[in-house]
Amino acid sequence: LEAEGLFDSSRKRVLPPWPRRIGVVTSPTGAAFRDILNVLRARYPLVEVVLSPSVVQGVEAPSSLVSALGRLNELADVDLVILGRGGGSIEDLWAFNDEQVARAVAGSRAPVISAVGHETDFTIADFAADVRAPTPSAAAAVAVPDAGELRDHVDQAMQRLTALVED
Questions:
Q1: What is the dihedral of CA 110, 46, 37, 42, to 10 degrees?
Q2: Phi/psi zone of residue 151: left (φ > 0), alpha (ψ -120 to 50 degrees), beta?
Q3: Dist CA 136 CA 115 (whole Å)
Q4: Which of 65, 84, 95, 143 could form a disulfide with 115 if both were Cys (CB 3.0 to 4.6 A apart)?
Q5: C-alpha to C-alpha distance for 162 and 142, rounded to whole angstroms
Q6: Given phi > 0 = left and psi -120 to 50 = alpha, else beta, which region is 6?
Q7: C-beta of residue 21 within 8 angstroms of C-beta of residue 44
Q8: Mean pLDDT over residues 69-97, rounded?
Q9: 51, pLDDT greater than 90
Q10: Cα distances (angstroms) measured from residue 64 to each of 25, 41, 69, 99, 109
């Protein structure tokens, strides 16, 4: 995969600064999905989240992950994808080391943030993704701007404009 250029930094895409719709590939019942939703709601509640559910461990997981990514690729208006799951043993995370998963990540129409496991865990999907995040929560934080910071910037701009008009 490395020889084919799937891990090459020159093919990595920049994340959109103002995503409107984020696709999430993970288990619908896992803590990772709840964590992603909580961070997205707190930072940037304007974003729409589309879950493409997948099995994230075990024998069925690689094909399930590939299918879930494929479903998101069929949607024209997904701005980026978060692929993730919480931590676990190397065996629990092994599906993210699958060649077909790596190819699906690299071939995604939208940029992909890989957020598999915890900070010290690395998988092949991380190297194929456009961005690697150390946790699912961190992926959500990287994916969107902070609405509080945006409000501060708007307030500062309004103050500058008001000062200019009053002069």
A1: 130
A2: alpha
A3: 5
A4: 84
A5: 33
A6: alpha
A7: no
A8: 91
A9: yes
A10: 10, 27, 9, 13, 18
Query: Residue 121: pLDDT above 80?
Result: no
Q: Tell me which amino acid residue 158 is.
A: M
**So what's the pLDDT on residue 167?**
75
Report how far residue 39's alpha carbon sits from residue 21's, in angstroms, rounded to the nearest whole number: 15
Structure tokens at 120: 């010290």
Q: Are 115 and 133 in contact (CB under 8 A)?
A: yes
- Token pair 């190297």 is found at 127
| Sole residue written with tokens 């399930």 | 64
- Number of Cα atoms under 13 Å in the Cβ half of residue 144: 28
Strand partners, 25: 52, 83
The pLDDT value given to residue 142: 96
In this prediction, residues 136-141 reach a mean pLDDT of 96
Q: Nearest Cα to 146, choosing from 32, 18, 34?
A: 18
pLDDT at 28 over 90: yes
Q: Are 82 and 140 in contact (CB under 8 A)?
A: yes
Q: What is the mean pLDDT of residues 54-66?
A: 96
Instruction: Find the helix packing angle between 99-106 and 61-73, rounded to 10°.
Output: 10
